[in-house]
Amino acid sequence: MKYRSLLGCLALSFGAFFASAQPLRAIEADEVEPAEVAQWIAALDSDRFAEREQASSRLRNAGLAAVDAVAQATERGSAEVFSRSFTLLENWRGAGDPALTQAANDALERLAQGEPGRAARRAAQLLNDEEDKVAQNFDPRQLFVGGGPIVVPRQAIVPIQVPG
């Protein structure tokens, strides 16, 4: 009996929470005030997980309007702000919007060439990871025999020789 009333209360609580939650939508750059972006960046360092998550979502949806401020936050924020800011920059690089992707790439390049420190190292690492992904698409050890590819394992001890 106690469990049923407890489950009923939980169901009502969750229902009220989800009913009141507004879905986030993409925000146009001209709809976002710099003060809002600054508030969201400050909220990335909140003691409450839900506030940090909401701030990350709002910044992600703000896109172009938040790129420069998020990049600046990587250099002066806490470890949490640092981590979330780089996650945002990395996500924006993979966005379908070419302008947003370019802005995130430009911000990472500025960070990588800027003041030496953890932000510069992380930005350089992200930029190098992207170059490595492009390089991985070409494997010179891939052989074509009989019209089909034979992939040579990277850890091959004995070189494979193809009779020519």
Strand content: under 5%
SSE run: HHHHHHHEE
Number of separate helices: 7
Determine the mean pLDDT: 74
Summed up, the domain count is 1
Structural class: mainly alpha
Strand order of the largest sheet: 1-2
The rounded distance between the terminal residues' Cα atoms is: 81 Å
Stretches where pLDDT is under 50 for at least 5 consecutive residues are 9-26
Helix content: 55-70%
Write down the overall geometry.
elongated
What is the C-alpha radius of gyration, as a whole number of Å? 23 Å
* Strands, count: 2
Main pleated-sheet profile: 2 strands, antiparallel
Break the fold down into its secondary structure elements and pairings.
Blueprint: H1 2-20, H2 34-43, H3 49-62, H4 67-76, H5 79-93, H6 98-113, H7 118-136, E1 142-145, E2 148-151
Short description:
The protein has 164 residues and is mainly alpha-helical.
What are the salient characteristics of this protein?
mainly alpha, two-stranded antiparallel sheet
Provide structural commentary.
The chain is mainly alpha-helical. It has one domain (21-151). It is 63% helix and 5% strand. The chain contains 7 helices and 2 strands. Strands 1-2 form a two-stranded antiparallel sheet. It starts with a helix and ends in a 13-residue tail after the last strand.
